[in-house]
# Entry
Amino acid sequence: MGEVGILPEDSRIELIAGEIVVREPIGSRHAGTVNRLNRLWTSRLGERAVVQIQNPIELPTEDSEPQPDVTLLRPRADFYTTAHPLAADVVLLIEVADSTLAVDRRVRMPLYARAAIQEAWLLDLTADRVEIYRAPTLRGYQDVVRLERGQRQAPLAFADLVLTVEDLLG
# Structure
């Protein structure tokens, strides 16, 4: 709709389960955390992944086109200029949550699981922790781990890249 002029292209909206959803305004802590993640992933992964910030991914079976805060994508020569990435292109998806925490847990994480995204991380700014979602099924993720400050984890796709909660949240 943005491409044909029905909605402004810079609107803070996304398609979730066939419905147009207005996105919450982004606060400074949320924005700063996304900036930190962009630098972290770009510097540590180099050419191993395309780091996408708040851009759409297509989930055709879910009739959805969400815009996760950070998406690590399989490298592609065209950097996804010819089409938005699909769920199969996603190696790690990250949502940063403060005011959107309930929606991210109840709507987005199950949506990503049904789309078979292998791993999604939820950075909970309200509790200062990281939730790691793995083993997707049609009913949600089977494996959920919560990490507190001082703990560390590596993404499934990059087992050699161990990160602390402090690396992610600052």
In short: Strands lie at 13-16, 19-22, 50-53, 70-73, 90-97, 119-124, 129-137, 140-147, 152-153, 163-164. Residues 26-169 form a domain with the tt1808, chain A fold (CATH 3.90.1570.10). Helices lie at 28-45, 101-114, 165-169.
